[in-house]
Amino acid sequence: MNQKCKHWNYQLDAENIVWLTLDKANSSANSLNAEVIQELDSLLDRAQHDMPVGLVIQSAKTSGFIAGADINEFTQLQSESEALHLIKSAHTVFNRLGTLPFPTIALIHGYCLGGGLELALACRYRLADNDPKTRLGLPEVKLGIHPGFGGTLRSLQLIGTPAAMDLMLTGRALSAKAAKKIGLIDYAVPQRHLKNAVRGILKSPPRTRRLRWWLNLLNHKHVRPWLAKYLEKKVRQRAPKAHYPAPYALIDLWLRFYDNPQQMLEEEAASVARLIIGKTAQNLIRVFMLQEQLKAAGQLKDYHPKRIHVIGGGVMGGDIAIWCALKGYIVTLQDQNNETLARVMQRAYHLFSKRLKDRLLIQSAMDRLIADVKGNGLRRADVVIEAIFEDPEVKRRLFKIIEPQMKLDAILATNTSSIPLEELAQALEKPEKLVGLHFFNPVDKMPLVEIVHGPQTDAHIKHQAATFARSIDRLPLPVTSSPGFLVNRILMPYLMEAVYLVDEGIPLKVIDDVAVEFGMPMGPIELADTVGLDICLKVADILSKDMSINVPAHLQRLVENGQLGKKSGKGFYTFNNGKIIKPAIPKDYTAPTDICDRLILRLLNEAVSCLHDGVVENADFGDAGIIFGTGFAPFRGGPYRYIKDRGQEQVLKILQLLEQRYGERFKKSDGWDNLLIP
Ligand code: NAI
Question: Does residue 193 carry a catalytic annotation?
């Protein structure tokens, strides 16, 4: 017997098993919205009437089981009570699923995240395909909330507090094998055995998992306050309470209500309803959606490059080549220096071992990365990436040599961080082929790649470059070729202001702490030391010609003295074996109150100028680019959103005040008068 609804398919087979298959209409992936959950409710009615030997929930999508709750629905919520209503109706259905009188099984492949995993947790058993593509997790905290469909209680009951809290507080996803190890799923088997495994379970349903006694002990009401303190302390290192309330709300929920499951479920719903309409969650949800928009910038269906040739195996070129090989490309890496290539191979082995773990996978990644002193790979490459010295003349000379050897349909990308593309393109017969792929350092950690197009760049080549960036799991941000592009341009005034503050005698740690308090991942002084003061100076020098940036003499002095930051063991700070040593702030020191505004408003002022100059298409892309390129406080939604939230007038007023106090560099940039922030 078969019943097809809009999103679900209900099938009762000859063995009296109900197969409930989710195939969300008009969507390539399954997600849970009110309609999908309502349909599920009515199909559970039918199942209760049919009284099968078991009920299996599975997905018809190749991408996976269920990727989570429908985020679009979150952004349309108007009030806490509306959110609560939505969450409570899901609770009712999931609770029903959890108490059906026959065995229920979630049959999982691919993504099983957030609400999807919560649905699986409401089933009696979980069975997953052991393919590496299977990923299980509760990533809600990344959106400023915590699990809200009963997943807090059910995960804690199933796998114990340490493992469940780790999943919910970090939001990380697990493979099927790792999920089996901690008891999140019951079986991880190859895809071809899944259906037989279902029949096996239903023939003689095994006992469901019970928590070990010592794990139960951690939930005792006298133990919880201690463990809660420890968990809060760990969270505080990554996410201050004032900015990220969700993880603290989750710990509090467990601390206060774990002894009373019914009440805990009710409080879970109330807590998520409160969080979801708050500023942090709404900003993080928006950032998530902007990230999806950036991804869409790189989706040419018929573009499938195979071979990559990188020229220049230094800090950047070496790491770009390694990253491309990790992501499956055959990569030839050319450098004029043999020893440099040998060093890259060592670095590659280190990263592949860390990421791939499996010996055979590491070996085949190493095989894909080919040291190529003579540049033989150039002729066969689909994408050629230049990452040699930052010198226009040297780059142009190289382009003249390589262009005639490249395949006709290959694209030529430069990783330059500051030279306008049109200046480099002069050396080419076909200047339209040149595009910028501006990676950030360190390549394996920084998700953004600026796709730089000069006036001469062909639009199709730009899309090909963005599609290539997506294929190596980076976020492409289209920007125009202008000094510093977007990220370095807005970062530089912020870093230079920090150096002015040092010159005024403000302790280094005070400056960094203020920025971290604002929500930056690290302070500007530590950032400059980490990037390298020579690199900062070089970029600042180049930008100072076109922008109103004066390069502080202090920075020049340090570089002249060989104090380059972390890499030389000393910059602003001293480093001991790579570990930063921050001198304590003098006891009776009182910091000026305008440090934060001085740092941040210079960045905002430049961001407005970038929008005015058309460096980035719109404020949404700008917010996403600056968050993913610099780590700018994600919970604030990006610099443009921050201006809007703080009030444009208010920001301008402070800018004016700072100009009176500190001079020209705070003069409002072009663009404020016709600033349009959606
Ligand atoms: P680097 O100095 O570490 O490496 C440059 C490499 O190119 C050296 O190994 C050198 O032997 C090789 N090389 C120079 N001329 C060559 C030629 N004609 N043929 C073959 N190999 C040649 O430089 P880095 O830092 O990797 O920078 C490379 C490019 O990436 C520059 O354009 C830079 O502006 C840009 N960039 C640098 C970032 C950074 O943080 N270092 C960040 C983003 C972009």
Answer: no
User: Measured in angstroms, how far is the CA atom of residue 252 from the centroid of ligand 1?
Assistant: 50
Give the C-alpha distances (Å, rounded to integers) separating 12 from 9, 15, 20, 54: 10, 8, 9, 10
Would you report the helix, strand and coil content of the chain in percent, each value rounded to 5? 55, 15, 35
Question: Which among 109, 146, 309, 438 is annotated as catalytic?
Answer: 438
The pLDDT tens digits of the residues spanning 427-470 come to: 999 999 999 999 998 899 999 999 999 999 999 999 999 999 99
Contact between 100 and 125 (Cβ < 8 Å): no
Pocket lining: 33 vs ligand 1, CB cutoff 6 Å:
no
Question: Does an H or E element contain 214, and which?
Answer: helix 213-217
Domains and CATH numbers, the chain: 2-277 (3.90.226.10), 307-477 (3.40.50.720), 488-614+647-674 (1.10.1040.50)
User: What would the two tokens of residue 561 be?
Assistant: 């003295």
- Secondary structure element (H or E) that encloses residue 490, with its range: helix 487-503
CA angle at 398 for the pair 394 and 400, rounded to the nearest 5°:
120
- The rounded mean pLDDT for the chain is 95
Residue 232 near residue 220 (C-beta atoms within 8 A):
no
User: Is 335 a pocket residue for ligand 1 (Cβ < 6 Å)?
Assistant: yes
Does the Cβ of 152 fall within 6 Å of ligand 1?
Answer: no
Report d(CA 282, CA 187) in Å as an integer.
37
CA gap 474, 444 in Å, rounded = 9
**Ligand 1 pocket check: which of 323, 391, 417 to mutate, most ligand atoms within 8 Å of Cβ?**
417
Which residues are bridge partners to 22 per DSSP?
Answer: 8, 59
Residue type, 633: A
Q: State the virtual CA torsion across 184, 167, 182, 267 in degrees, nearest 10.
A: -60
Out of 335, 336, 373, 388, mutate this one to test ligand 1's pocket (max ligand atoms within 8 Å of CB): namely 388
Residue type, 416: T
Give, in order, the Cα–Cα distances in Å from 484 to each of 487, 489, 671, 672. Answer: 7, 5, 18, 20
Q: What is the pLDDT of residue 256?
A: 97
Which residue, 37, 654, 653, 616, is CA-closest to 293?
616
Please spell the DSSP secondary structure of 173-186, one letter per residue.
EE-HHHHHHTTSSS
Q: What is the average pLDDT across 487-492?
A: 94
Q: Which residues pair with 574 in a beta bridge?
A: 570, 581
Q: Does the pLDDT value for residue 323 go beyond 90?
A: yes
Quick: pLDDT tens for 117-128.
999 999 999 999
Residue 416 CB less than 6 A away from ligand 1: yes
